[in-house]
Amino acid sequence: VRARSGKNGIGKGKIGSKASDERIPVPPGTVVRELLTQKVAGELKIDGEELLVARGGRGGRGNEAFKTARYTAPKLAERGEPGASRWLGLELKLVADVGFLGKPNAGKSTLLAAASAARPKIANYPFTTIVPNLGVCDIGDEGAGIVLCDIPGLIEGASSGVGLGITFLRHIQRCKVILHVVDGTSEDPIGDFNTINAELKKYDTFLAEKPQVVVLNKIDVTEVKERQEELLAQLKEAAGHSRVLPISAATKDRVKELMGRLKKFGDAQPVVDLPEPPQVDFTQAELESDSDDFEIMSDPAYPGQWRVNGDYIEQVAKMTHWEYPEAIERFGRQLEALGIAGELQRRGATDGDLVMVDKFDFEFNPGMTNPYIPYDLLEKDLLYEEERSGGMLVEEPDEEWRPYRSGGFLDDDSGELMGFNELDDWDSLDDVEELSAFEYEDDDDIWQA
Q: What is the pTM of this model?
């Protein structure tokens, strides 16, 4: 997605109009991350919430901004600041009231289909569910529905990446209540319950501390029906609470009662948000970063080459009009003011070394007026001189020394000359003590410089 650029300014101090913002609609529960570092920039939880992920650059200043009483028409302007450009990763965390948790083939999808109009895939083999499924259970009263989320089953070792469920646990991080479905036909239902809770604690302690409601499923099976009381007592002891209910998702036995209890229990729970994740700030512009935060790098394998890294100085280089000598002088003064030129000299940079800032390369000439002229502009000047000389640069011969040119002996003898003395040397009018007492002969010829 690329936002449009603003309009250019025109004469008489008129600025260009700003471009409109570019908005991308995403569903609630979307987490925005910086793709390279995977740092979280923010999360959009409710409808209408907005998050700034790429800030546009400010417009460059025209020459009127640099006008002074002395320089009424400066040949100096700025380019517009480049807007932010980055790759983002979007992660959707489903927002539900109740999240289903349990072993594969425990009957979670069957329960979702029995309690709502959702139609997830149901089959008699593990890992039938490979993607999260959402369903809405209508309790009957207006506004009394609850949102249910079914994720793939968890197995032992899930916190280390075994199975599928660990990948989708983030979808129940927003749930108020976790519904733990226990398969009554399992060889060890209590062991399954403890295994899931142990994997949950290894994955996320915040998720493991969420309140749970435990259901013993498949009580329609004779073997489970016979052991129902025993299993319920053991589950209450393992869970540490009495929120345990026997159901049959296949026959919908006590499913409606379960949904009603979940609704009341969920409404009584406080809204507890996730712990604040590591943040990265996308709202700060590069020119707002610390100007003293720069880094100078050099490689011993390439002597005489220096690279300057820093958000602030790189933006300044991008905004510099390299075609204008006054703008180049200003960039040089900025390097001096920021201490970059002094730091380069302290590290051993000498006259003629190559200095690189972002994509701009120039020679380092400390103390010069215009040291920061990129090579591409020097090449343009060379082509221009070639065109003026008919396509060939001819080196002009050195001028012959002549006495009356600058640098001749007349520059040293600046006084007025009057003639030769007895030693065949110049007599100057400045050497005469009393010029008014000097008497000229009629045939004297007086020379003056």
A: 0.55
